[in-house]
C-alpha cells in the first residue's frame, strides 16, 4: 500500500517524462471493423491526472477520454476516405484539408496518424493522437502511447499551420516533436510484436553452423546422427525445457517460438501475450518466445540466479545443457544498376549479427567486432543486452549478457568493400507492339577471391501486365524457364557454385506476349522496366565485418565451442533497362 500511495503521489509530468506506456490498442480488419481492443486503466488514469494538472481538460479539440470501438472504427473509416487510403497521402495535396495528417506535409504521418473522433454524447469531432499504424496481412494494428498533453496540443497546432513541411526557423515541427517522445519507438515495437502474433509470423533470427568433421560431437546434436552432407545448416537447438515442443524433423530446428499457424484471429493468444508482456500497459518483455516458454514451463528452483548477479528481463530462466555459442552474420545487398554515364550505380548493404549463446548461469561474453570503422558501417544499433565500451580504428569491443534463444546482437548498414557481386547491363527494346528483344551481358564475382563462394544466381524479367506466350533465346550458360508473367534465367544453380574466379554470362533473346492492355502497373514495358537478380554468397561478409571465434571471451570462464559463419543474400538487386525509363535520385555534387 505504501508503494502504491507513493506512485499515486508522483507528479504526472515526472512519471510520463520517459519510457513507454500504452493507453490502448486496437486491431481492425480491412473492412474497418474492430476485431480486438485492449485498454490499460492504470495508464489512462495517469493521462487524465496529467490533463487535470494543467487545470483544463486538454485542448477543446482533443479527445479527453478513449473512444468506444464503434467511435474508433467510424473515425478510422472517415480518415481513410479523407486521406485517400489507409496510410494516407503523407504530403500536402489538393485534397488535403486543414487539420488532417496530410496537411502536416510529412511522410511520417503515414505511420503515426491522428483520428477525429465524434463523441456520441457530444456530437463534436475531437483529435486522438499519436496512433501508431502498423499494417500486417489484412489487419491494421493501432497503438496509442501516452504522451503529455502539451505534446498533443503541439501536434494540433502543427495540423493547422499554413506553411508546409518542417519549415526552416519554424517554432514547432513534427520532427522535433517526435524526438521528444521516446514512447513512440516503444509503441512501434508493440505494434510489430502484435502484428507478428496476429498473423502467426513469429520467427527467430536464423543462426547457421557449419556441419563439418571439425565440429566433432556437435555434429550429432545438429543432424540427429543421420549422416547428412557437410553443408551449412540453420540451427536453433532447443533450450532443454523446450525440447518436446521445438524439435524439427532431422534435427535442424528453425525456432524456439511456437508457431501459431494460419487461422482466424486468435484472441486468446493476444490476451496471453499482452497480460505477460505488458500487464499494466508498460512493455516489459516483447519476446514471444520467452513468454511462451514461461507459460509452458513455469519456473523451478534451479532457475534462481547466482546470489551476486541480477537476472536481466531478457533471460527469465536459466539454460541447462551442452554449452556453445553460435554467431552468424547475415547481409543483404541492395543495388540499382543503371549502366549509364549520367546516373551512377547505387549499392548498399544491410546486415545483422545473429547469435545463440547456450551458456549456463548468467555469464558475460565479450569479443572485438572486426570492421566496424566508420568508412564501412554507417548505422549501428545493438540489442539491449549489449555494451560497447571501447572503440578502435578497426575493432570495437562488444560485451553482452546473452538472452535465451536466437537474437539479433547488432544491426548495421554499410558499404560494399569489394564491389558489386554482379555487374553488366540489361537492354530491352520493342520490336513490334507485342514483341520485345532483350540482351543481358553480366559479369559475376569480379574481384572476389576464395573463400567467397556464389552458391546460386538467378535473374528474373517480370512482365506484370502482359502474358508471355512465346519466348526464344539461348544463354551462354545456365537454364531458362518461363511463367505466365516472367522469364527466369538460372545462371548458377545450387550445388554448382563458383569460388575464386569471375565468369561472364550473356543472354540474347526475344519475348512475345498477348495484345497489350492499359498500363496500370508502372513497372512494365513502355514505362519502367527492369530485371531482378537473386543470389547467395557464402564464405565472408561483403562489408568487412567479421568475428574471430578465438577472440571470444566468456566470464566466468567456461569451456564452450564458438562457431561463426556468414551468409550474404540479395535484397532488391535491380538491373534497370538501359534503353528505357528508370527512376533515380539526384545526388549533390561534392
TrEMBL record:
Gene3D superfamilies recorded = Mu homology domain, subdomain B
Q: Name one GO biological process term.
A: endosomal transport
Q: What is the designated name of this protein?
A: Clathrin adaptor complexes medium subunit family protein
Q: What keywords are annotated for this sequence in UniProt?
A: Membrane, Protein transport, Transport
Recorded hits in PROSITE patterns, A to Z, give: MHD
Q: Which Pfam families match?
A: Adap_comp_sub (PF00928)
**Which InterPro entries does the record associate with it?**
AP2_Mu_C_sf, AP5M1, MHD
- Which residues belong to any copy of the MHD domain? 322-579
Q: Where in the cell is it found?
A: Endomembrane system
Q: Does the keyword Cell membrane apply?
A: no
Major subcellular site: membrane
Amino acid at each position: 500500500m505504501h508503494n502504491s500511495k507513493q506512485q499515486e503521489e508522483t507528479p504526472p509530468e515526472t512519471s510520463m517524462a520517459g519510457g513507454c506506456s500504452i493507453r490502448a490498442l486496437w486491431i481492425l480488419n480491412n473492412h474497418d471493423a474492430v476485431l480486438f481492443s485492449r485498454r490499460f486503466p492504470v495508464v489512462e488514469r495517469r493521462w487524465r491526472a496529467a490533463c487535470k494538472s494543467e487545470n483544463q481538460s486538454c485542448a477543446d479539440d482533443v479527445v479527453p477520454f478513449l473512444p468506444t470501438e464503434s467511435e474508433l472504427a467510424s473515425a478510422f473509416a472517415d480518415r481513410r476516405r479523407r486521406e485517400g487510403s489507409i496510410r494516407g497521402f503523407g504530403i500536402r495535396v489538393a485534397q488535403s484539408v486543414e487539420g488532417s495528417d496530410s496537411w502536416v506535409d510529412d511522410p511520417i504521418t503515414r505511420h503515426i496518424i491522428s483520428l477525429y473522433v465524434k463523441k456520441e454524447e457530444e456530437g463534436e469531432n475531437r483529435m486522438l493522437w499519436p496512433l501508431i499504424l502498423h499494417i500486417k496481412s489484412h489487419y491494421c494494428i493501432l497503438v496509442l502511447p501516452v504522451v503529455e498533453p502539451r505534446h498533443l496540443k503541439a501536434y494540433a497546432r502543427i495540423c493547422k499551420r499554413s506553411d508546409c513541411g518542417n519549415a526552416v526557423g519554424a517554432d514547432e515541427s513534427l520532427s522535433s516533436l517526435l524526438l521528444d517522445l521516446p514512447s513512440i519507438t516503444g509503441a512501434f515495437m508493440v505494434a510489430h510484436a502484435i502484428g507478428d502474433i496476429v498473423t502467426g509470423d513469429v520467427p527467430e533470427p536464423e543462426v547457421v553452423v557449419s556441419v563439418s568433421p571439425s565440429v566433432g560431437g556437435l555434429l550429432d546434436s545438429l543432424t540427429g546422427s543421420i549422416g547428412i552432407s557437410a553443408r551449412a545448416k540453420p540451427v536453433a537447438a532447443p533450450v532443454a525445457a523446450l525440447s518436446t515442443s521445438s524439435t524439427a524433423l532431422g534435427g535442424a530446428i528453425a525456432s524456439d517460438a511456437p508457431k501459431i499457424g494460419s487461422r482466424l484471429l486468435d484472441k486468446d493468444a493476444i490476451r496471453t501475450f499482452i497480460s505477460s508482456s505488458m500487464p499494466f500497459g508498460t512493455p516489459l518483455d516483447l519476446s514471444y518466445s520467452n513468454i511462451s516458454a514461461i507459460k509452458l514451463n513455469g519456473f523451478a528452483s534451479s532457475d534462481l540466479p547466482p546470489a551476486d548477479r541480477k537476472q536481466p528481463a531478457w533471460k527469465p530462466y536459466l539454460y541447462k545443457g551442452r554449452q556453445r555459442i553460435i554467431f552468424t552474420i547475415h547481409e543483404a545487398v541492395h543495388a540499382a544498376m543503371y549502366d549509364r554515364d549520367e546516373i551512377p550505380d547505387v549499392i548498399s548493404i544491410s546486415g545483422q549479427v545473429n547469435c545463440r549463446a547456450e551458456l549456463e548461469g548468467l555469464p558475460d561474453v565479450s569479443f572485438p567486432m572486426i570492421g566496424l570503422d566508420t568508412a564501412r558501417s554507417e548505422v549501428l544499433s545493438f540489442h539491449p543486452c549489449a555494451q560497447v565500451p571501447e572503440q578502435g580504428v578497426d575493432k570495437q569491443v562488444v560485451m553482452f549478457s546473452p538472452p535465451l534463444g536466437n537474437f539479433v546482437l547488432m544491426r548495421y548498414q554499410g558499404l560494399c568493400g569489394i564491389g558489386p557481386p554482379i555487374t553488366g547491363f540489361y537492354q530491352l527494346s520493342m520490336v513490334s507492339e507485342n514483341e520485345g528483344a532483350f540482351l543481358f551481358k553480366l559479369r559475376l564475382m569480379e574481384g572476389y577471391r576464395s573463400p567467397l563462394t556464389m552458391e546460386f544466381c538467378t535473374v528474373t524479367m517480370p512482365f506484370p501486365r502482359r502474358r508471355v506466350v512465346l519466348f526464344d533465346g539461348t544463354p551462354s550458360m545456365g537454364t531458362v524457364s518461363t511463367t505466365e508473367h516472367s522469364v527466369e534465367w538460372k545462371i548458377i544453380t545450387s550445388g554448382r557454385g563458383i569460388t575464386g574466379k569471375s565468369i561472364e554470362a550473356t543472354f540474347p533473346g526475344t519475348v512475345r506476349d498477348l495484345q497489350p492492355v492499359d498500363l496500370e502497373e508502372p513497372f512494365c514495358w513502355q514505362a519502367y522496366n527492369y530485371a531482378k537478380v537473386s543470389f547467395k554468397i557464402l564464405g565472408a561478409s561483403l562489408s568487412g565485418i567479421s568475428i574471430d571465434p578465438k577472440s571470444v571471451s566468456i566470464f566466468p570462464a567456461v569451456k564452450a565451442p564458438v562457431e561463426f559463419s556468414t551468409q550474404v543474400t540479395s535484397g532488391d538487386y535491380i538491373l534497370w533497362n538501359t534503353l528505357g525509363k528508370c527512376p533515380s535520385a539526384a545526388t549533390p555534387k561534392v
